[in-house]
Amino acid sequence: MDNLGKRLFILFVGLFWASLLALRTLYTLFKVGPRKLLERRDPGNPPSELFNSVYGEHAYMNVGPIKIHYVISGPENAPLMLMVHGFPEIWFSWRNQIKEFQKDFRVVALDMRGFGDTDKPKGIQNYRIDCLVEDLRLFVDALGYKSCVVVSHDWGGAVSWAFAARHPQIVDRLVVMNIPPVPIWHQGFSSISKPVQFLHSWYIYSFQLPFLPELFMLLEDAISLNQAFQGPTSGLLLSKMTDDEVECYKYYFRKSGAMTSAINYYRANFYPPVAQHDLKYPMPLRIIWGCQDKFLTMDVLKDTLLAVPEATLTKIEKAGHFVQMDDPVNVNASIREFLASTNFEMSKK
What we know:
The chain is built from 14 helices and 8 strands. Strands 1-2-4-3-5-6-7-8 form an 8-stranded mixed sheet, sandwiched between helices. Helix 3 packs across helix 14, helix 4 packs across helix 5 and helix 9 packs antiparallel against helix 10. Keywords: Hydrolase.
């Protein structure tokens, strides 16, 4: 299939799924009425839980062309543990890991470019993997560290795979949750030879359309976030997230342009060209995988292990895509076991 054919195929699939979303929206319109459907609260004051001192201090740092917001805690002379979130998330997704590891690490959970209180540059090209990798490189350096332990999930994991491949001297240990490297991820959702993953990735195609994805995501005061974080997975209600916790995410996504910058991750790295990088990793690497993931199949995990055979694996059977929030106890235990088994020195800086 030539480039034009691929673009037309992408457009067709995106429009198909957008049509189904439009039909569902019409059904919801008749069910709840136009006022509730189009409800969008003003961001107002941030939820108090975002500023709970147990998570550390909020700070900002100019990194290259953007200003990054992050939350920092733990002993100043401890090694750095950098936590990198995914979509549709913010630093707050790591709340259970922050409390667990701040005793032993200088823990920094950042808002990625385009998310939370970090700058949101306009333009799809500003969300390519290359830009995001450079953000992490400059950020670690600006924090005053030569290297760190990286703990990552979803899009944060995709960026961290590339970051560790391109700058292995900066990454002492790599933990990635529920995301393969971008080349494998792209192969999984873009090939009809993998029909199950292709169907699981329907939303990625709809995200290629302008305007409509943001509209659908923000209907009923961003009820899509409730569905993502609190919805059922494979018939099991796995999430323990409260409405107040979901409000911490909604506060940021209610702001003008916030959903567009988040969705631009998918637009910038879909096609073409796909960000390529080496899949050989010299540092110890742990994959943690919630097996009830609604978005990524177990075949994607299998492909990742074949491509990165040196990685060790923890499968968490009763967790979904947001594994670090679904089962923080087992996630934290896996990270600790991984660090201990690879003889990581807690006193290292």
